[in-house]
Amino acid sequence: MGALPATITQLKDLRFLAISRNFISGEIPSSLGDVRRLRTLDLSYNQLTGTIPPVIGSLPELSNLILCHNHLTGSIPPFLSQTLTRIDLKRNSLTGSLSPASFPPSLQYLSLAWNQLTGPVDRVLLRLNQLNYLDLSLNRLIGTIPGRIFAFPITSLQLQRNFFYGLIQPANQVTIPNVDLSYNRFSGQISPLLSTVENLYLNSNRFTGEVPAIFVERLLSASIQMLYLQHNFLTGIQISPAAEIPVSSSLCLQYNCMVLPLETPCPLNAGPQKTRPTTQCNKWQG
Fold this sequence. Notes:
The protein folds into 2 domains: 1-143, Alpha-Beta Horseshoe (Leucine-rich repeat, LRR (right-handed beta-alpha superhelix)), CATH 3.80.10; 157-286, Leucine-rich repeat, LRR (right-handed beta-alpha superhelix), CATH 3.80.10. Helix content is 8%, strand content 27%.
């Protein structure tokens, strides 16, 4: 409990510093920038306040930066280390936009969820083609998402609850197991190239048109485990009312511009209404 001991920065050859879940308060000392050989800095789950000192971003050998679950404010400094693979800053109060120079291409894990970040991210993401985990959820980010990121070696893509818009256009079949694009403003038709995603959340967007038949095939064969399409403007899905969805799979279609072909269990927050009002459908689809 209390502030981070200033004497730590006297350990010039320190490589690994992990003091998580210790009720540490106060600010991150800028003098940590003097510990030039530091590779891992983990101060997560504390009560740290203030900004992330820019000198942290200039540590030349930094590989892992874990500052999640604190009360940090201000913008994210650029990180210069070309060996940096993990940044976890989720659940803080960070603000500002992200620059393409913010993160090195070596990054494999990036979590910035539950902050107050703004602005577009398309140019930032295009540089990070080594990512295997990306979570930008619950921010105020805007703009389009480049189709190329769906070819990155990502296992979990979390972009939900932002203000992203535009079309989702992967170039090839998507191999990411978990994709959450819910609660944004994406529009257009749903790409059949997303049908290989095991857990796909597209709910609460502005998607239109019919659901491609390949989704039904993969759902009925239990290749898709979760398919949430509720709260869009979809006009149909080719599935028999007598179809038996596997126990291991879930489908939710509520509040679209179609008569539901079959009853399926939906999450409580999908609401009681089965179909979107015709006036909304006519207005949105012209």
